[in-house]
Design goal:
Rossmann fold, six-stranded mixed sheet, 23% strand, globular
């Protein structure tokens, strides 16, 4: 599975996930400072699951009617780079088919819903 990290995902987290074998690209590398709609279009074009802290992507997907392969929404406080990495890595290691889903990662639970 391929992933796209929004610009609000710290780049060291992306690099570490990549070093651990995940196919992940960062908006930080692609085109910094772009609108959410453009981020969603890149995810769609490259067939990548979008990872973000930005809960506004729900609006982008439904209001702007941009279809993306899937969304991983981080809903916990970004306490540190290590904390973000460990939470995200743990979820990516689970046997979850992220395609067509919104996966919300909270401090104490994970919610999976159809996109």
């Amino acid at each position: 599975m391929k992933f796209l990290a929004d610009e609000n995902i710290p780049y060291p987290v992306v690099k570490r996930l990549r070093e651990n074998g995940f196919d992940i690209t960062s908006i930080y590398e692609v085109k910094r400072g772009i609108a959410d709609e453009e981020v969603a279009r890149i995810a769609a074009t490259e067939d990548r699951i979008l990872i973000t802290f930005d809960k506004d992507f729900g609006m982008v997907i439904f209001v702007e009617n941009i279809t993306i392969p899937g969304l991983i929404l981080l809903r916990f406080p970004p306490k540190s780079i290590e904390y973000i990495y460990s939470k995200l890595h743990a979820v990516l290691e689970l046997d979850i088919d992220f395609k067509g889903k919104i996966v919300s990662i909270h401090e104490d639970k994970i919610r999976v819903a159809k996109l």
